[in-house]
Each structure stands twice: as structure tokens, then as C-alpha cells.
Amino acid sequence: MQNRDKVIVRTSIVGILMNVLLAAFKAGVGILSNSIAVILDAVNNLSDALSSVITIVGTKLASKAPDKKHPLGYGRIEYLSAMIVSALVLYAGLTSIVESVKKIIHPEEADYSTTALIIISVAIVVKLLLGWYVKHKGEQVNSGALVASGKDASFDAILSASVLASAIIFITTGISLEAYVGVIISLFIIKAGVEMMLETLNDIIGKRTDAELARKIKALLTEEPEVRGAYDLYLSNYGPEKDIGSVHLELPETMTVAEVDVLTNKLVRKVYKETGIILTGISVYSYNTEDGNAVKLREEIEQIVLAHEWALQVHGFYVEEESKSIRFDVVMSFDIEKAEGLKILYDELSEAYGEYTFSIQPDVDITDL
User: Fold this and answer.
1) pLDDT per residue rounded down to tens, the chain (369 residues)
2) What does pTM read for this prediction?
3) Neighbours of 365 (CB within 10 A)
């Protein structure tokens, strides 16, 4: 975690230094050439520097040790800093479009020098490289704030390129397009800001567990010969690389409590070593191992249940012949209300197997099965 924080801070510092330098050069060029587009570009660089400062502050706060008030740490602060960076991108886009429209209504003739064009060209190359570097580092250490800053830098390069193209067109033809180009680029920046904000909002609200990660964890669990299946995997996120989870395991009814204890402890260590995820809760389903009729009933009942498109999976199936009861869980899609789905299943199974009573637990489709 410390290495991750150092990468984020170091990358952000690089971003601050480069953006401050670019802002200074562009501001000088914009004032001398009377170009609103170049001046706005300079202001945008300052907002990027501020984004990097926010990323550093967010990383430092997120890395605070857990305490009594926040026993699971402060990792989610990183999502807030990413949201602020996204808001700055959105603000930059809105500001740019307002100023560009003003320039269309009240046009002013720009005066570009060779030096100005060279500085803008250099800025484009620097911003492209900076955007790639920051985004790459952000993806490397799973930092939403860095990824957002990297994307913002790439859009800045496009903005600067549009300014350069407008300047060249103006010099060669006398036609001034920079304000119109500014409007178009501003719309793209606004779109990017909204998308980054929505992506971060999904992290804050909570989203579906990554399918590849879920499959990996379930594969690790079911490698053990005693584990017939792993179900109801639920992961809670408390910041980048801070996940805790729970899962249900299907184990033979013949296992003792001591054997289950040894197995679950082994699995917790194994999953943490391979994925960094802490399984804080492992619950157990038992399955019939000595009753041939139970196997037959499971196959028949699964066929009835899974005939419905909204029924995605049956697990935790167990038959108690002595009390003539059957229990199982069914994963339902979001296409049907739980109460409606349960009523359909109870009615169908009670009619087909009147001698048995059923206990059906509905599960939510939270991971790809």
C-alpha cells in the first residue's frame, strides 16, 4: 500500500510541475497574441495542477490508519477525490464553452507569432506524454483520481491541437475558427467529465463484482476436494485494494465442525494470498451424501425451477427425509419480484411433491454465475 501511495504522489507531483510550467507559457502566449483560446488553455492547465493537488491530499487522507470511528480505514476518500477531479474537468468544459460562445458573439482578431505556434506545438506533445504517463500509472495502481487526471490531460492536448489548427487556418486564410472549434472541444470535455463522474459514482454506490475476480475466487475455493460449490460471493469495497467478502460453501453433511474449521481457515489464507481479499465470513450449506433419493429429487427440482428464465441458479439443496422437508436457495434475476417468483415456485413444487414441505431462500444476482 505504501508503494502505491508513493507512486500516486510522485506521479501527481510530476503533473503539478508540468502543468504550472505549461500554464505560465500559454498565459504569456495568449496575452501577447490576444487569443482567448490560448488563455483558456492556460487556465485549464492550472485546473489540472489543482486536480493533482487534490489527488495527493486524497491519497494521504485515504492512507490514514483505521481508528475507532472508522475501523475499516479511510480508503473511500480516494473516490471522493476522483469525484472532485471529475467535477473540475466538467467545470473546465463548461467554462470553455461559455467563453467560446462569448468569442463568437464578440469576435476579436488574434495575432499569432512563430514563437507562439512553437510553444503551442510543444505543449501538445508534452500534454500527450503527460496524459499517457498519468493514466498508465493510475491504471497500474488502481487510482481513479490519476486515471481521471490522465484523461483530462489527453483532452487538453486535443484542445491545444485545435487551437494550433485554428491558428494555422487563420494565418493562411484569414478565417478565424478558434471560437467555433473551442465550442466543439468543450462539448467533448464536458462529456468526458460527466462520464468520469458517473464511473466514480458507481464505485461510491457499489457495483457488481468483477466477473473475472469472482470466477478466480470461486475456483480457488472449489479446488479443495471437500468443496462441492461456492455461492453467494459478496464483496464490500472500502477503497482501492481494500475489499472484504463473504461466501457460502457447499460441504458434505458428514464433515465435523472441527474439519470445517480447519478447511475454512485454510481457504481464508489461500484467497488472501492469491487476491488480497479478506473473507470475513464463510457460511456452509450441507449436501446429501448418503441418500440416493435426494440426488434424484435435486435433479428433478432443479429442472422445474430453472425452466423459468428469471431463475438463474439453484444451490444449497438439502433433503431431510425424516421430516419430509426440502430446502434450497434460488438466484433470481432482476426481471421478477422476489415475492412473485417465490409464489410461482412454491405453487409448482407443492403440486408436484405434495408429501414434502419446502423452504426456498431467494438470492440476489450480485455476481456473474
Assistant:
1) 557 778 888 888 888 888 888 888 778 877 877 766 667 667 777 777 877 888 788 878 877 877 888 877 787 787 887 788 788 778 878 887 887 788 788 776 666 677 777 777 888 888 888 888 888 888 887 777 778 778 777 877 777 787 788 778 878 887 777 778 778 777 877 887 888 788 888 877 777 777 888 889 999 999 999 999 898 888 887 776 678 888 999 999 889 999 999 999 999 999 999 988 889 889 899 888 877 788 899 999 999 999 999 999 999 999 998 899 999 999 998 889 999 999 999 999 999 998 999 999 998 776 655
2) 0.62
3) 15
Phi/psi-derived region of residue 76, left when phi > 0, alpha when psi is between -120 and 50, beta in every other case: alpha
DSSP 153-185: HHHHHHHHHHHHHHHHHHHHH----HHHHHHHH
77's CB contacts (< 8 A; 6+ apart) are 58, 61, 62, 239
Q: Is the dihedral of CA 260, 265, 268, 271 positive or negative?
A: negative
Rg (CA), the chain: 29
Sequence-distant contacts of 303-308: CB under 8 A, at least 24 apart: 304/348, 304/349, 304/352, 305/330, 305/345, 308/341, 308/344
Take residue 110 and report the three cell numbers written for it: 488574434
Give the H or E element holding residue 121: helix 114-140
Q: Is 321 strand, coil or helix?
A: coil
Strand-pairing partners, residue 243, are: 237
Residue 276: CB partners within 8 Å, gap ≥ 6? 241, 243
CA distance 182 to 365: 45
Q: Which of 123, 108, 112, 100 is nearest to 29 (CA)?
A: 112
| Segment (H or E) for 296 | helix 292-305
Q: Give the SS3 label for residue 317.
A: strand
SS3 state of residue 355: coil
